[in-house]
TrEMBL record:
Residues 3-43 form the AbiEi antitoxin N-terminal domain. This is Type IV toxin-antitoxin system AbiEi family antitoxin domain-containing protein. Residues 180-264 form the DUF559 domain. Signal peptide: none annotated. It comes from the Bacteria. InterPro entries: AbiEi_N, DUF559.
Length: 276
């Protein structure tokens, strides 16, 4: 039946698409009366438990994009409190309260009635809309998840802002926090290796030869935390210095965190100890 077709479209489709799929107008009307379908707006129907974000997009003549669509794709996004939409058909849109609308022409062509943007267009909107660090973190996330290829992105006619974001990306960034730390330490002039392999485990960053920076996200608890502490001890016995940073230190108290790293570099803790 039509349920599988609806499921492939997030539970929200144009009535014409269902009729093209074989449903008669009469049968469609019966499904609405029975409560198995809901009229979203003229020409659109949805299942009662369809994705509410897609329902909102259809109701307002919009397309999910920028940070809203990035978050739906499982990408790192710093703040999702404000919904973002792209406008494909200017003049037909209705602005939801508090929403941000993007009127830029899509880089990759979209279906006229698409409710969610392509990943490439989504990333370009993120680059235009978000602060530079936040945009790089989202792009890093897409590359790390292998949802998009860096070389393929580079071949697109990216706007200047998006090109700068792409140039600053690193597909090895394992979390958004790592993206922020990498960008904020570039000026130090010290070699930085992301996801370095030391003593049987990966570390987030190796500065120089001996300074390890580890970023603790929400998952660093329980057994994971015990494993981290054990590995820190092994590294210390091998002459490494480990600095651990929590989410709040990176996102809310970076000057203090940076001061600790700068002090460690000033003391030469990133360099191999000289034999006496």
């Amino acid at each position: 039946m039509y349920e599988a077709f609806l499921a492939r479209h997030g539970g929200v489709v144009r009535s014409a698409a269902l009729m093209d799929h074989g449903l008669s107008r009469h049968y469609l009307h019966k499904e609405v009366l029975a409560g198995r379908l809901v009229r979203v707006r003229r020409g659109w129907v949805a299942q009662p438990h369809a994705d509410p974000q897609l329902v909102t997009a259809a109701r307002h003549g919009l397309m999910l994009s920028c940070i809203t669509e990035a978050a739906r794709q499982g990408l790192w996004v710093r703040d999702t409190s404000t919904p973002h939409y792209a406008v494909l058909r200017s003049g037909a849109e209705i602005r939801p309260e508090g929403a941000v609308l993007h009127y830029h022409a899509p880089l990759v062509p979209c279906d006229r009635y698409a409710l969610s943007d392509t990943l490439e267009n989504t990333l370009v909107h993120v680059a235009r809309c978000e602060p530079f660090e936040d945009a790089v973190a989202t792009w890093d996330s897409a590359l790390n998840k292998r949802l998009v290829d860096r070389s393929a992105l580079a071949q697109l006619p990216l706007p200047v802002r998006a090109r700068k974001v792409l140039d600053a990306t690193d597909p090895f960034a394992d979390s958004g926090l790592e993206s922020y730390v990498r960008l904020r330490l570039r000026w130090l002039g010290v070699p930085i290796v992301a996801q370095a392999w030391l003593d049987g485990h990966r570390v987030d960053f190796l500065l120089g030869e001996r300074l390890v920076i580890q970023i603790d996200g929400a998952h660093h608890t329980g057994a994971q935390r015990t494993s981290d502490i054990t590995h820190d001890a092994k590294l210390a016995l091998r002459g490494y210095t480990v600095i651990r940073l929590a989410y709040s230190q990176v996102m809310d108290a970076w000057p203090t965190a940076q001061a600790s790293i700068m002090r460690a570099v000033a003391l030469g803790l990133h360099q191999r100890a000289e034999l006496v």
